[in-house]
Amino acid sequence: MFKIAVLVSGSGTNLEAILNAIDEKRLNSSVNLVIADRECYGIERAKKRGIETHIFDRKTYRDELSKKIYEVVKNRADFIVLAGFLSILEGEILKEYKDRIINLHPSLLPKFGGKGMYGDNVHRAVLENKEKQTGCTVHFVDEGVDTGRIILQRIVSVDDEDNIDDIKKKVQTQEHIAIVEAIKSLEVAYEGAN
Ligand code: GAR
């Protein structure tokens, strides 16, 4: 049984997908911490489930944000899952959690990744580039932005009539599957290692 800290900045639908998978015993983990870098609905979802929450506002903590998060997760979480977390982590937390910290990104990396590429910005770029397909990626977090080793991707088609919201919905449906599959693969890797 692994303990997971989930980091969020938004509505938390991916957090919900993880929690549902745990409830349904599709994952052999529990979420014991939900941490946000701003007030957001993801925190409300966690509170409703009685999960410990922390908010470290990115504008207050700035360069100290990663350190604050590390202080909370250290020795308490086996894995860190960035599920719609929009700040960039740096420093010790990345070293200590190397290969145990994963991020979900709403495109087929390496396409449409990097600084400023999040949420709707990604889907807008996909439309502007007239991509025929897009999707989501779960990858390990390293010192770069969206550059870590890819764990898995799920693909959706982009139709001529699709707008940003259409693409977002399609990608989100796949994200809810992908994030659970990626956590499962971590569980398998680390169960095997023990
Ligand atoms: C997801 O689409 C995720 O891929 C994206 O934020 C959304 C969060 O949704 N993450 C990024 O853009 C990170 N660069 P949620 O709050 O409903 O889970």
Describe the protein's architecture and organization:
The protein is an alpha/beta fold and 194 residues long. The chain has one domain: 3-Layer(aba) Sandwich (Rossmann fold). The chain is 40% helix and 23% strand. It is built from seven helices and seven strands; from the N terminus they run βαβαβααβαβαββα. The protein has a seven-stranded mixed β-sheet with strand order 3-2-1-4-5-6-7, covered by helices on one side. Helix 1 (13-23) packs across helix 7. It is globular. It starts with a strand and ends with a helix. The model has no long low-confidence stretch (mean pLDDT 97).
List keywords for this structure.
Rossmann fold, binds glycinamide ribonucleotide, alpha/beta, 7-stranded mixed β-sheet, 7 strands, 194 residues
